Amino acid sequence: MGAMLGTAFGQLVHALLPGVTASPGAYGLVGMGAVVAAASRAPMTAILIIFELTGEYRIILPLMFAVALATGISHLLSRDTIYTLKLRRPRHRDRPGAASQHRRPAHRG
Fold this sequence. Notes:
Layout: H1 2-16, H2 24-40, H3 43-54, H4 60-77, H5 82-88
């Protein structure tokens, strides 16, 4: 989603200011890194992955700015990451009447 939105924004900006801006693909990479950092709350990981993926030095500063901004907004909107959110949800298999086929019956004896 971040790559799509970043590329769309990059195409819009590139159409308005073609000589001043970077290619729309660079905006897509920055958007992708920002969404990964915001969802996982791992900004350094997102920056390193995008940099290792591209090897492009010119996007490091915009990437760092977008990742920092996205991580900050993510902290303001939710206390959970995509990983901790699932852990906080109630377990559906423990509800009465929702027995799983994979569970063994308790041995009582």
